[in-house]
Write a structure and sequence with these properties.
Elements (H helix, E strand, L loop, with lengths): L9 E4 L8 E8 L4 E4 L4 E6 L8 E6 L2 E2 L3 E4 L6 E2 L1 E6 L2 E6 L7
Amino acid sequence: MAAKIRKGDKVYVRSGRNKGANGEVLRVMPAKALALVGGVNRVKKHTKPTRDNDGGIIEKEMPLPLSILMCLDPKDGKPVRVGFKTEDGKKVRVAKRSGQVI
């Protein structure tokens, strides 16, 4: 199945403790159905000191399930469902609300 959410997309979080947050997709892991969204789902991680870095508490993003993410409409910035259609012989993603190519 074609990917509805890709790296670089602006997305909206539909549920969970980060509900209502917006961010940009940094990485998609389709085999695990997860995506890393910048500035969303940040956690504090305790790390041991190693040769490369000092130990301590760092803050980083953790992946979110693809099922709770929705693309934002390029026209008005609201969450929108994604569909597919062919333009000039190529398959493109389109926003169901406005019909614009994502």
